[in-house]
Request: fold
Amino acid sequence: MKSDWTELLQFDKKHIWHPYTSVENALPVYPVEKAEGVYLELGDGTKLVDGMSSWWTAIHGYNHPTINAALIDQISKVSHVMFGGITHRPAIQLAQLLIELTPPSLEKVFFSDSGSVAVEVAIKMALQYWQSKGKNKKNRLMTTRSGYHGDTFKAMSVCDPVNGMHHLFSEVLSKTIFADKPTCKWNEEWDTEAILSLQKLFEEQHENLAAFIIEPIVQGAGGMNFYHPQYLTEIRTLCDKYEVLLIADEIATGFGRTGKLFACEHSAISPDIICVGKALTGGYLSLAATLTTKEVSSTISKGESGVLMHGPTFMGNPLACSAGVASLNLLLQSNWKEKVSWIEKKLTEGLAAIQEHQKVKELRICGAIAVIETYENIDVAAAQIEFKTLGVWIRPFRNLIYIMPPFIIEKDELELLILAMKKIITKSIYIQ
Ligand SMILES: Cc1ncc(COP(=O)(O)O)c(C=O)c1O
Reply:
């Protein structure tokens, strides 16, 4: 470790709160000095293959010359300017791309600064939509268990009530209606019974429902559950039948991760509102967007307030939007579809045998995502020491060891990740 890191890490431990950690009993953190391609370089010079894409974001890897150049060019023009009363090329270009690429009929774009805020905006759109139609009773939200939509309060209220630790905030969180976790798995035959309980909830609750929110196909941080595309098709039908808006949270799944540009495409449905974020800027800067239809946007605009009541300070930040334009163009010019399908095939072949291991409850693979669910919870600190020795960066949570590598990953690097996942389950990493 370079000498200055010792002091810096002491300061970090003493003063900085990392995600979901205690300051009294903080988990160790690893200093990253730089990152290049699929490699993270630590303070002690160790290079690790990154299996996490910095939480679904860095699809093109790190330090990409094209995104770097786009940012440098934009910095020399304007790094930030307020979006109230002003517009700029990067926001317009990014909105054009998003409208073109997202499912049909989504044609109004609201930029925000993080995924959680994009979800807040989506919910606000849904609530304002029904208010504008004079249907004030339609003000509740429905979702399935095992979902994750962010850490702000309204977003938290639609996260899994157990994993999302609702009990800590039970006085403040709105009372969401929770359907069961989707049971019919992604790669199984469709089971018509899998939708029955949800049908019943729609029948009972639709008069109060503003929107149904769900992560299409892959539920992320709420449990890494992959469900059948027909389930989403059925939800679209129920939303249409009972006049409920469908919000698709594609913040984790968007931009190719599941093998389609957007996971909604597995079910060939178009939501009324979609949220995108994470990989939107190729992992360079925090940016998200909420897109909706002419019907939703016009209804809000003709309603009592006449405006959508939201406007973050850094809305449409030009630097972030220029990274977004560069990242999306890179994706479109690449052979991402073949690459993701190659990653899926390698993961499937490389990890298949792991299902037989006594510690493993289930192996799940979809596009460039692999998840090993173990019976016991993982000791994250112990697992990370092992992973570092194995030359990879993988960060499990609860009983889930999962990877979603950058799409640019090559054979040897992917094989190293697969080997590390196979080896880790045999180590002493379980919480007793
Ligand atoms: C599906 C989904 N929605 C929303 C969010 C929240 O995004 P952010 O962390 O940028 O606020 C996340 C983040 O993990 C997510 O996976």
User: Anything to note?
Assistant: The first helix runs from residue 3 to 15. Residues 68-333 form a domain with the Aspartate Aminotransferase; domain 2 fold (CATH 3.40.640.10). The pocket of pyridoxal-5'-phosphate is lined by residues 114-116, 119, 148-150, 215, 220-221, 249, 251-252, 277 (CB under 6 Å). The chain has two domains: 68-333, 336-432.
